Amino acid sequence: MAETGAETEIELARRAAEERTLVAAAARGSKVAFEQLYRLHVGKVYGLCLRMTANVATAEDCTQEAFVQAWKSLPAFEQRSRFGTWLYRIAVNAALAQARRRGESLGEHASADELAAETLADPAVANDGALRDLEAGIAQLPAGARRVLVLAGLYGYSHQETASMLGIAVGTCKAQLHRARQLLDARLNGKEVAS
Predict the structure, then answer these.
(1) Angle 68-98-76 (CA atoms, 0-180°, nearest 5)?
(2) Which of 63, 154, 187, 192 sits CB 3.0–4.6 Å from 137 for a disulfide?
(3) What is the pLDDT of residue 125?
(4) Could you tell me which residues come within 8 angstroms of residue 168 by beta carbon, excluding any fewer than 6 positions away?
(5) If you ran DSSP here, which 8-state letter would residue 141 be given?
(6) Under CATH, which number does the domain 14-110 receive?
(7) What is the DSSP string of 85-114?
């Protein structure tokens, strides 16, 4: 039997209510509730950190840092946004802070081949050549363009939100996103890109 729109909306509402309950319990100090929130979000947070840093070890550090910071800050979380949105913002800040601490541009040390191999170690995804090419193409982008593409293009943040997170002008954000898409298209389709 096919799902109807109403069933999908009901399921989404149920999940949102469950998450709000977990957030409230975790904010009161429940480690069990926070562990459930961790399990719900760790894959997406790690994916965001990995795409931001293009470095597996740094992404793991950023993921851990994001959850530690979230645990510490949870009592102050006002639930004006979804927990996941708040957590992803913490993860972005963790990735940027890691880069500043290490004095490196995000992702400059990781090769696209290493990133693709480690990212796609899951056999369910490993056979998908298009996804592998996409991940490798994203990893090869210049750090600024990659960060904007990840936040605005993949995670759906607005230009204003992305610019604010990265500390750049909105116009720069738009230009970086356009450039990232051009470079990614060229890499995926074997085209030359004008400098």
Answers:
(1) 35
(2) 187
(3) 45
(4) 144, 176
(5) S
(6) 1.10.1740.10
(7) HHHHHHHHHHHHHHHHHHT--TTTTS-HHH
State pLDDT tens for residues 87-135: 998 998 898 888 778 775 444 434 333 444 444 444 444 445 667 777 8
> Of the given ranges (75-79, 122-126, 152-156), which has the lowest mean pLDDT?
122-126
C-alpha 171/C-alpha 176 separation (Å) is 9
CA atoms within 13 A on the CB side of 183: 20
User: Do the beta carbons of residue 148 and residue 180 sit within 8 Å?
Assistant: yes
Q: Residue 17 is encoded by which pair of tokens?
A: 């209510």
The 3-state DSSP class for residue 14 equals helix
Residue 168 exposed, middle or buried by CB count within 10 Å (0-12, 13-18, 19+): middle
